[in-house]
Amino acid sequence: MEAEHRERGKALAVVGAVLQLGPVIGVMATSIGMLHSFGVLAQENVSDPRALAGKMGEVLIFTLLGFLVGLIGLILIFVALVRSQYRARWLYWILVADGFLYQIAFPIGSLVGIGLLVYCFTHRAEFLKPRVQTQ
């Protein structure tokens, strides 16, 4: 039962960590979409601000979707940490990196980032246990 519980926690943590790439992919897709929209508007000699706003609204959907995917990933990681009590060295470093990256998204992201960093540093010993050598 313990091994099954640990494997479920590991699976949740891995999927959550991968989903943390959602915001990055969403912002990249938005940037590419913006460049494409500006190119189309420039080719058509459109100077109407409403046309520009409409195109920008279309491509900002990718950012929203990316952040929603990232939020789902964060929830999965939270479940792996709290419910499954999953701890691993790789997860510790993912959480530390996420904690620092969330500092960029002031003010709410900063609170999430600070919470992640405080959690990581107060539970560091659980994540970074010395590896047992089996022979």
Poorly predicted parts: none
Helix content: over 70%
> End-to-end distance, in Å?
25 Å
Task: Tell me the series of helices and strands, N- to C-terminal.
Answer: HHHHHH
Strand residue percentage = under 5%
Biggest sheet: strands, sense, closure? none
Tell the overall outline: elongated
Category from helices, strands and their pairing: mainly alpha
The average pLDDT value, as a whole number, equals 89
Rounded to an integer in angstroms, the radius of gyration calculated over CA atoms is 20 Å
Distinct helical segment count: 6
How many β-strands, per DSSP?
0
Give a concise summary.
The chain has 135 residues and is an all-alpha fold.
